[in-house]
Amino acid sequence: MRRGSPADLAGLELDDDQRHRTPYYVTISYRNPGKTDLYPGQASSVRVLTEGGQQIGGAPALVLDGLEIAGCPSDGSGGMVPPGGKVTQCTVHLPADGDEPVAVGFEDADEGDLSVWRAHVS
Questions:
Q1: Is residue 78 very low, low, confident or very high in pLDDT (cuts 50, 70, 90)?
Q2: How many CB atoms lie within 10 A of CB 69?
Q3: How far apart are CA 21 and CA 9, in angstroms?
């Protein structure tokens, strides 16, 4: 997880509350080990857990009005991942002011469970 700056998102239409928040970026990479194309929707399952007990979903960087965010690089066009293919995605999370991230989670859509890893912010 990487800490960004509110200036990173200057080109986005954010509400007054969001505009001054510090963005945090989470990058995930995965490979398609299957025999058929894989829909690259895993980024929507990434969650940031905060000291204040919040679970914050993120917006995939490529969804944010097509804005390229230097601290949050993604590859691919959002198309299907072919067998053996690899994709890297980055999500943007905006915790409330003063609430710091402590962990990154990945929600299992089929089970509703959340797998969590301690976050080291750089």
A1: low
A2: 19
A3: 10
